[in-house]
Design brief:
The protein is mainly β. It has one domain. The protein is built from one helix and seven strands.
Length: 108
Amino acid sequence: MLYVKGSDGRMAERPRLTNLPASIDAALTDTHGKHVCRASGRPKDSNEDGIWVLMSGAEAAYWHWQCKDILMRSNESYNLVIRVSSAGQAAEKVVVIPKLQGGGLELP
């Protein structure tokens, strides 16, 4: 997830954060260069292909279905690359903080 720095998750922030004129690409690879997940798209309010979905709560954060429910190993190193493009000169500055969540032993 990409947490929006300084956000308190208020509903009043949603229009601003779901209409950012930017494209976000994220790639998580293991030490062998194999893609664990790869996601790209624009911020929006709906769960569609090519969309970073804005979630609200105590904090606002973006998530993408292509980087959800991925398998990571505790003894492996990973590289995360995030690229933001197509942000116009007039685009508002928004800082996001990547955070991997979940984990633990999950049995079938």
